[in-house]
Amino acid sequence: MLDVSNIDLHYGAAQALRGISLKAEPGKVICVLGRNGVGKTSLLRAIMGQHPVSKGTITLGGTDITKLSTVERARCGVALVPQGREIFPLLTVEENLKTGFAPLPRNGRDVPDDVFSLFPVLNSMLKRRGGDLSGGQQQQLAIGRALVMRPKLLLLDEPTEGIQPSIIKDIGRAITYLRGLGGMAIVLVEQYLDFARELGDHFAVMERGSIVYACDKAGMDEGALKRALAI
């Protein structure tokens, strides 16, 4: 389980996160919602260790990872699919996938079958350069690369942004499948309520670096959720 407890994050004098607390459980999806600029990506950066928090703690499976580097967190099982995908355009699809081997022991460096069963197009394009893929295919590649790491915690930063509807459905099916395996906690940052509502077990709405509304699926007050999103 991921447990983020009362974290603050600053970029110099500017405060990006204010007292954020949330939990992500194995076999569950927590959706973090909100408009651009409210701190959603900063939250994922804090969890991944790309920017140090100035207050609070982050634990994974009961282990305090607050002070660990990004590489050390990856070795603990944290994987990020960043906004904008950030694949390597001059590397082939196969080489991009193999960059996910970095935190793994040598005897565990293979691409799981799930990557190709979830995204068959990647198997047919192994020798093509990442930069030659469509945006949707690059997003599938970015998710596949993260899955190569066998994560305990998967962080997805707006995976539907700029993606054609057919591939959004593929991504939704992949998230549903991964949740159903039961061993992975998933944090999904998303702007589109319909996509999040279909997949999420828990929801948190952010505004100005804080969580202003939180609920689980069973207890969702859709009116309150929409009002929080409209703030």
Keywords:
231 residues, alpha/beta, 6-stranded mixed beta sheet, 4-stranded antiparallel beta sheet, 9 helices, 27% strand
Mean pLDDT: 94
Report the order of strands and helices: EEEHEEHEHHHHEHEHEEH
Briefly note the structural class of the backbone: alpha/beta
Low-confidence stretches: none
Strand order of the largest sheet: 6-7-8-3-9-10
Major sheet: 6 strands, mixed
Count of DSSP strands: 10
Which percent range fits the helix content? Answer: 25-40%
**Over the alpha carbons, how many angstroms does the gyration radius reach?**
17 Å
What form results from the Cα inertia axes? globular
Distance between the termini: 30 Å
Count of helical stretches: 9
- Proportion of strand residues: 25-35%
3D architecture notes:
By secondary structure, the chain is an alpha/beta fold. It is built from 9 helices and 10 strands. The strands form 2 sheets. It has a 6-stranded mixed sheet with strand order 6-7-8-3-9-10, sandwiched between helices. The radius of gyration is 17 Å and the shape is globular. The protein starts with a strand and ends with a helix.
SSE inventory with pairings:
Elements: E1 2-11, E2 14-24, E3 29-33, H1 40-48, E4 55-60, E5 63-64, H2 70-76, E6 78-81, H3 93-98, H4 113-118, H5 120-124, H6 135-148, E7 153-157, H7 165-181, E8 185-190, H8 193-199, E9 202-207, E10 210-216, H9 222-229
Parallel strand pairs: 3-8, 3-9, 6-7, 7-8
Antiparallel strand pairs: 1-2, 1-4, 4-5, 9-10
